[in-house]
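Here is one chain, start to finish.
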Amino acid sequence: MTLGTALRQGTELLQNGAIDVPRLTAEVLLTFAIKRDRSYLYAHPEQELREVEWIHYGRYLHERLKHKPTQYITHAQEFYGRDFYVSAAVLIPRPETEHLVEASLPFAGDGMVIDVGTGSGAIAVTLAAETCGHIVGVDSSAAALSVARRNADAFAASVSLVQGDALGCFQDNSVTLVVSNPPYVAQADRSSLAPEVRDWEPESALFAGADGLDFYRKLVPEASRVLKTGGHLVMELGAGQAAQVAAMLEIGLRKIRVIQDLAGFERVLVAERCQP
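Its structure:
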């Protein structure tokens, strides 16, 4: 079996299985199996696969046909120019979350910065790397924190990790920036999600009650408590949630702006802690 034949057959298999972007997916899985980059496939289409490579490639294709996300097969996802390790214990970082990072960077230089629901650590590691500052990542999942630690170590990022539920363990008026990509999918929307998301990504990182707003209801008052005057709260939003989340801001928190993503959705809310 040559690389060219393996790529063609893998593409056809994924296409028949109604998998999105079958050609690109086959390329990624084949290069992962042979431990080469994609350009190698086209430079050496006549090269024969070794038996172990063929076995691995077949297994990866079989997993993808079960709608297992490619990122959970290769354990890799690019985010803000860095390749992060991911597993089924964490949400796969999305491109739109880069807007959250961009909005947070101006406030992340000094003082205590907390990433609530850190998951893979992509946000915390990116903020630490881009600012040369120290970030605290909080997550209720020990398995997620293990992934975040692996990523922080891989990039030599100054990140401390705390297992906990939101901001309960932090002191009043002690934090400069709270940043969070919280769960915001309504339980009623479960059936509309792609099987790659619904059946594979961790529920605790996706769903937030009947209307998708439960985590905001918890996070906003806790952020109001821990933020210093002049501190900021930056949160990712689900589609159509901006007005409802802004209405939750307590006395002492004021909305600065809402940032749209490239698709035109209101994606990030930035608030400031002012004098109550």
